Amino acid sequence: MYLKNLFIKNFRAIKEASFTFNKGLNIIIGENNSGKTAIIDALRICFSYGNQWRDIYIRKDDFYIDVENVDSKNTSIKFDLIFEIEKEEESGLFYDLLVQKDDKQELQMHFYYYIQEIKGTEKVKYKIWGGDNEGQQITPDVLDLINFVYLSPIRDAVEALKPIRWNRLGELFANIVTDKEGNPIDGDKRDVLAEKITSYVKNDNDWTNLIEAGKNKINEHLNETSIEGKEQNIEIDFLPFEFRRIVDNLRIQFPFFKDDEIKGDLKKQKYLQISQNGLGYNNLLYIATVLGDC
After folding, report:
1. Vertex 19, ends 18 and 25: CA angle to 5°?
2. Residues 113-123 pLDDT 10s
3. Does the pLDDT value for residue 293 go beyond 70?
4. How big is the CA angle at 289 (ends 285 and 291), to the nearest 5 degrees?
């Protein structure tokens, strides 16, 4: 399926607008402050509904205000999304959204936001439904089938790709579901991969000896500075080798030499870090990483 129609009402500077999309690439062109960002944000709000990590919500400032009427009040915001069905099985998969239009079927999602005063405080309330009957709930399983990627304006591609928690590179590896041979990578497989690293490090004598030496030095000083009879010893261990923490610490590097130049001797290879790379290429790298987990 693909999004065929979008209807927006009373959202930011848009009083009422409708859009028709084609399958594949669609480009929105317009002057500054003409509502392009509002269109994208409307789609983000709708497609991220039910997502635990959503980063955009409807606020009171998002309700349309008639600039020609000083007494105008906030009105309700409404988004209507119409999807074109391309395969027969989509009618069953997205049954919560299904609508019969004469001899044709389509999928619909509707979002309705309004302001309600509760004990003197204005709060944004909402109703979400599928199909053409208000009240038809959309189950989490159906929402999980709607996949989208929002590529935000890139301010600092290097910062976004740093090996820190929840970085884009980690997101890519966390969302890979099959390896290069097509074998599934599920939760159990990820646990096995993490356990391999845990086993390797904890069974390496050099590492265990180093950890033990550091622990002994700390305990020695703790004993010397503690009240006699109340000494406490500590243990030192690695952080849990969880799959997500491992992939979050992967980093991107650019090799200087081609494989035929180093002839398999990786010790001769030198690398360029992304912070040393050009801004334009880093932006392309970031885009490729985002699109990689689609």
Report:
1. 170
2. 999 988 889 99
3. no
4. 115
**In 242-254, which positions are buried (b, 16+ CB within 10 angstroms) versus exposed (e)?**
ebeebbbeeebee
b vs e for 55-72, b when ≥16 Cβ sit within 10 Å of the residue's Cβ?
A: eeebeeebbbbeeeeeee
Q: If you average pLDDT over every residue of the chain, what do you get? A: 88
Read off the pLDDT of each residue in 276-284 and give the average, rounded to a whole number: 79
Nearest to 96 by CA among 127, 139, 135: 139
Give CATH 3.40.50 domain extents, the chain. 2-144
Question: How does DSSP assign 169-233, residue by residue?
Answer: HHHHHHH--B-TT--B--HHHHHHHHHHHHHHHHT-HHHHHHHHHHHHHHHHHHHHHSPTT----
* β 271-273/121-130 pair status: unpaired
CATH class of residue range 2-144? alpha beta
Q: What share of the chain is helix, strand, coil (3-state, %, to 5)?
A: 35, 20, 40
